[in-house]
Amino acid sequence: MPLAPEPPHTHGQAERVGIVLANLGTPDAPTAPALRRYLAEFLSDPRVVEIPPLVWKAILHGIILRTRPAKSAAKYASVWTPEGSPLLVWTKKQAKLLQGHLGERGAQVLVKPAMRYGNPSIPSVLEALKAEGATRILILPAYPQYSGATTASTFDAVTAWARRQRRIPELRFVHQYHDDPQHIDALRHSVLAHWQREGRGEILVMSYHGMPERTLHLGDPYHCQCMKTSRLLAEALGLKPEQYRVTFQSRFGRAKWLEPATEPTLKALAHKGTRHVDVICPGFAVDCLETLEEIAQEGREAFLKAGGQQFSYIPCLNDSAPGLRALSDLAWRHLGGWPLTEPSAVENEQSRQRALALGAKR
Ligand SMILES: C=CC1=C(C)c2cc3[nH]c(cc4nc(cc5[nH]c(cc1n2)c(C)c5CCC(=O)O)C(CCC(=O)O)=C4C)c(C)c3C=C
Ligand SMILES: [Fe+2]
Ligand SMILES: [Fe+2]
After folding, report:
1. So what's the ipTM on this one?
2. Do 261 and 210 contact (CB within 8 A), yes or no?
3. pLDDT tens digits along 254-298
4. What is the pTM of this model?
5. For residues 226 and 145, what is the distance between their CA atoms, to the nearest angstrom?
6. Which ligand places an atom closest to the C-alpha of 46?
7. Could you tell me if residue 328 is inside a domain?
């Protein structure tokens, strides 16, 4: 495919810095057709499902996309808000607040939310940033723990877009922040505030999105990073090993996934006499289907049915002040060395003249 010409305004002017706050993605509506589109894109990503493509294509189109969209749509409908999907609504809020926080520190950067699957897509957001004059772009995937299925897949989408550009922006990429002390402190704050509001449970369950177990043996650091986040949070809260559990949720397909699984753990705790459990999902930057439906609704029901008395779900960092402070400090560190104030019109004109003069000499 031939490369398109660059828009004229990119030839020699304002050099702005942009940030793409990228999360996983979500359907456009809680309906079966919207879910079919979203799941087809998501589950066709070879980073997400590592099964030989021809075999997987037959299973995906022959079975999964016939049955799952309607079932998932009903789950999405139970958490959908008047403004839209919680994942997108929160990510938009975070992006706006992040831009404000960085602005307060004197950094005039453009922060835009993006979705790896669905909308606003990563290429459309990169295009928009470029159109607004961004020549330096920081990609900030909203995943504290690195995994090939999430972080690396975001990188794939960015580089696929860059391959189509004549003039690529200067790009930086945040890899993970699972052990960032400020991130851990924001999680600690969130738990303490929750305990103050609703009382303290006997056990804190830290539930992460699952992955096929074989990805651990193949060298994906996701599992190790989940364990480290959990250990650091437990230490920050002064928890003894018997006062917390690390579990994995959202199992998909027939392969063995990381264990222990969240729901069976909740049931086992209730059976063994735990009356009050607190559950936090430290792998999710914002609340979404996986936390609001799978944990706060289904997890609660499973625990109470098994004899538990009180189930407290601790929300994700979302738009909390400590969470935003940690996120903006993280972005700030990754922006180091980039010019963060907008050049004046005079500076722009000077740099344009210099570029023209240089061009004339050559
Ligand atoms: C093969 C399946 C999947 C892998 C591997 C996987 C990894 C993974 N996912 C997240 C974060 C999220 N996943 C979400 C939804 C979701 N995940 C899968 C499957 C896999 N995820 C599906 C099919 C779905 C859609 C819902 C459903 O039909 O069950 C979400 C929520 C999106 C939303 O709109 O709210 C998030 C967030 C991580 C972090 C991860 C690996 C580390
Ligand atoms: Fe997922
Ligand atoms: Fe789920």
Report:
1. 0.98
2. yes
3. 899 999 999 999 999 999 999 999 999 999 999 999 999 999 999
4. 0.94
5. 6
6. 1
7. yes
